[in-house]
Amino acid sequence: MTQQNLDAVVSDIYLKTHQIWQATRAGLAKTHDHGFKILYAPAQYEPSTLVIGAQPGGDATHMLDAELRHPSVRNEYLSQSWPLASELRKRFGTIFLQGAIGTNAIFFRAPSWNTWLTIDPQLRMKLENFCVAENKRLILAMRPKQILLLGWDALGLMGGTGFRELVANRPSDGRPRRKRLLMFGDIAGVPAFAIPHPTAAWKNPPVSDVDWAMIVAKINQSP
User: Fold this and answer.
1) Is residue 31 helix, strand or coil?
2) Do residues 194 and 155 make contact, with C-beta atoms less than 8 angstroms apart?
3) In sequence order, what are the residues at sequence separation of 6 or more whose Cβ sits closer than 8 angstroms to the Cβ of residue 212?
4) Beta partners for 100?
5) How far apart are CA 9 and CA 39, in angstroms?
6) Domain range spanning residue 126?
7) What single-letter DSSP state applies at residue 178?
8) Would the N or C end of the chain have less CB density within 10 A of its end CB?
């Protein structure tokens, strides 16, 4: 693969995603027909990190014609102020994100994960299977050095092999159950880390600043 091959694959993924979106819009209805978002930065061959969330948030007001046709013209993790971008900059720093390209396990927008789960199950499974397959194709064409999965839903969708716990901690209130902080495995032949979703990490049990420091240090130690 080369950059030229990658560009061809990315163009085809956008075309196929647009086609399946158009074909299923009637089934999505107004509550779920919010378009899609694939890449949050220009496609780059062999980037340092491919960041994969579960699915893009937002509603119909966030649906832009340009993002239905091609990747973002700049790295949105560095240029945008939405909560996830801000939290990633806070936790990982701009140097880490300069070499990162973002996408989602599911390309299609929904205001929240719970909203996405209310789609007709057969249609949802069809769309999820399509997106995961295209993501595996993207990984093979892009050949990132590593993958960073944002949240356990993203890990569940993308699957992978050999995932094991690298970092965990006990809640500060002394409860016996541990916080799962970092998993490590393999997706399509690429080393992959999974972490708590940064914008939902305040939930029970919360992920502290100390926890985040451990997560980031462990990822930065990876070869």
Assistant:
1) helix
2) yes
3) 91, 201
4) 49
5) 13
6) 3-220
7) P
8) C
The label of the residue with tokens 């647009």 reads 18
Backbone φ, ψ for residue 203 (5° rounding): -70, 175
Exposed, middle or buried, 111 (CB in 10 Å: 0-12/13-18/19+)?
A: middle
CATH of the domain at 51: 3.40.470.10
Per-residue pLDDT of 138-174, as tens digits, reads 999 999 999 999 999 999 999 988 888 887 776 555 5
Any idea what the Cα angle at residue 152 is, between residues 146 and 153, rounded to 5°? 105
How do residues 47-91 score in pLDDT, each as one tens digit?
999 999 999 987 676 777 778 899 999 999 999 998 999 999 999
Q: For residue 161, give both structure tokens.
A: 């092999």
- Tell me how far apart the alpha carbons of residues 159 and 150 are, in angstroms, rounded to a whole number: 13
* pTM of the full structure: 0.91
Distances (CA, A) of 220 to 123, 186, 208, 215, 216: 39, 17, 18, 9, 6
Q: Domain count of the chain?
A: 1
What's the Cα-to-Cα distance from 163 to each of 45, 171, 172, rounded to whole Å? 25, 23, 26
Amino acid residing at 177: R
Alpha-carbon distance of 220 to 99, in angstroms, equals 13
For 151, 182, 185, 209, the CA distances from 217, given in Å and listed in that order, are 18, 11, 17, 12
